[in-house]
Design brief:
Blueprint lengths: L19 H11 L1 H4 L23 H4 L4 H10 L14 H14 L3
Amino acid sequence: MRTLVLLLITGMQVAWAGDAVKGETLYQANCSACHGKEADGNGPAGSALNPPPIGFMDAAWWEGKDDKEVKANIKNGKPGTAMMPFAHMSDDDIASIIAFLRTKQPK
């Protein structure tokens, strides 16, 4: 006799693997002009933006954020800001950018 087990997990962050080294390269090429080379929100193009770009070294920004939400912001852009959509990026590339950004997240 076979038994089927269904596991339902709610309220948990889904972690998906990304390559932080690749993500840093992608970040520098696509994001650093606004968000800064160090991901601190102080990129040269970002100084003219209102609201200013996110600084990923800010603990308050990361509070309650999961990778799915960060991915949606990258993929779809952020209405009311200068954050444009990067819909052309693959899910793997976005996962790698997020893996890099997580290295900037305060512990």
